[in-house]
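Final report, section 2: Outcomes. Of the targets proposed, Saccharopine dehydrogenase NADP binding domain-containing protein is the one most frequently requested by collaborating groups, and we therefore present its record in full.
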Amino acid sequence: MAQKREFDIIVFGATGYTGHYVVETLAKSEEAAKYRWAVAGRSILKLRKTLDDVGLLIGRNLRTMTAIKADVEDEASLNAMAKRTRLVINTVGPFIQYGEAVVRCCVENGTAHLDTSGEQYYIERMQLKYHTRAGETGAFIVGGSSFASVPVDIGVDLMKSKFDGRLAQIENILRIKPGSQGYRFNVGTFSSMIHMMANMLLYRKQRHALMPDFDTLPAQPFVSSRKLPLYKQKQLNCWCLLSNEGDKQVVDRTQYSEHRRNGDLPVLYEQSIGFKSLLVPLGLVFWAIGVFILSQVGVTRRFMETFPRLCSFGMFSASGPTRQQAAEARFTHWFFGRGWGKADASNPTGPPNKKIIMRCDGP
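The predicted structure is given below as C-alpha cells.
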C-alpha cells in the first residue's frame, strides 16, 4: 500500500446514514486524531452539512476538514479520490450495485479499501475478480468490517486460541435487545438483503469457484450439523432460528484459508438468532420466503426497495433507527464450543468431552 499520500483515510459516502456515524466516530476518536482524514461524496454542500451536523453533536468545529467530490457513476472521480489516500472507507450501498467501481479504483491505485458490506455475494465476487491484481498493487480489500461479521470472525478465532485442546464445533447465537423506543433497520440493509436473495443461485456457483474443494475438506469426527432450522436452546432458554448465511460465510472462508495455509482442521460452525417467543421466528420464516419470491422479479424487487417499511412491516425504513434507538439497542453474541481436551485431541475416540462458552456484548 502506498505510504506517501495526502490523506491516510477518506470516508466515501459520508452523507449517508452509515457514513454519518463513521464520520462522528472518527471525529471523536483520539486514535483517529493521529491521522489525516477527509470526507467524500456526490455533493460538496451535503458533505459540508454533515461536517457541521457532526461538529454540533460533538462540540467541535469541523469546517476545516477537506470535502472531496466523488461519484460511483464517475470513475475518474473515484480514481482521483483513491490516489489521494492510503485507505478508503466505503459506506455506499447496496454494494452489489455501487461497490465494484470503488474496489476497482482502489486496487488499480494500490489503495486499501474497507467497507461495511454484509453482502457475501458481493464480497466473494470482489475476491474472485480482484484478488490477484490487488496482490500485485499491494491493495488490501476488506469487506464485512462492521457489526455484520467482525464480532463473529474474531470470536471464533479467539475461542480456538483459548481452547485448551482441540475445538471441534461452535454454536453462535445472536440476541438483539431493543431499547425503550424499539428498533428499526436502515433501508440499505433491506436493499442488500433483497439483492442477496435475488443472486442466491448465482452465489452458490460463485462460492464453488472461490473454494472448489470446501465440501470435501476433512471433517471433525463425532460432530454433525443441526438438522432442524428452528430449535429450543436450553442454556439460554430461547427459540433459535438457524441463519447460515452472511457471517457464516466469513467464518467458513477463514476456516478454509487456515486449512489451506496451516492444515488446521475446520471447526464446524453454525449460527442462529435467538428469540424469547416462538411466534417471532415463525413469522420471520414466512416473511423471508415471501421476500425471496418477490426478489426474483425485477418489478417486485423495485417495489420492495421503494416501499421498505410497508414490505417489512416496519422493520426497515428510509430514515433508519433514530439516535435514541441506536444508542439504547444492545446485542450479545453467545459462543458455545465443544471439543476434546489435550489427552484426546490428537486421536479422539468418542464425542467431544470438553466445553467452552464465550459472550460478546456490544451497542
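Residues 66 and 201 are 43 Å apart (CA to CA).
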